[in-house]
Amino acid sequence: MKGWGKYSQCLIVPIHGNALLTCVAQLQKGSKSFRASGSFFISNTKEFYFRQMKSLLLLRGLPGSGKSTLAESLSENGKYPVFSVDSYFTNAATGEYNFEFDKNHIAYNQCIEKTKAALQAGLEKVIVDNTFTMEWEMAPYFKLASEFNYRLFVMTIENYHGSKNIHNISQDQLKKMAVNYKLKLY
Predict the structure, then answer these.
(1) Domains in the chain, ordered, with CATH?
(2) Beta strands in 16-81 (DSSP E)
(3) 22-31, 35-44, 103-112, 168-177: which has the minimum mean pLDDT?
(4) C-alpha gyration radius of the chain
(5) What are 96-112's pLDDT values in tens digits?
(6) Does pLDDT of 47 surpass 50?
């Protein structure tokens, strides 16, 4: 399997503790792409699965959309770590949130560093819950996913449930944030 890229889709078929793995992979080298397919017999299915299927989940959306609630659910009661810029501004003992704009860059860097440490440790799933209204905010995470060979999922959370944000951000400010919000649908 050495040389198979991060852009791959695989089907694992269990065979008495082993597996037949069929893959279609797309390797990206500069501006050229390469597609290949094949089947491989894997003797240690569990080891292969965990080595190849590590995931970095980026949850993005406006304040109040439900990112933190979804992140908590995806973490399976803390089994997987959740990192957020909000954590920097939240008192661990009281749960009180106190945002300080002049420290926002420190919070962003701390979130990136905690995520990097989790990826370096090889954790199976890592979740990052931030607004990510602009693509440049996600760029460091794209780089980390590539560096540590993680599949990257970017999930946009929408506020169909009508919740209010807990950060006291005004409707006018939310509208300004929404104007900058870009989606990549294809």
Answers:
(1) 7-52 (no CATH), 55-180 (3.40.50.300)
(2) 18-29, 32-42, 55-60
(3) 22-31
(4) 19
(5) 888 888 999 999 999 99
(6) no
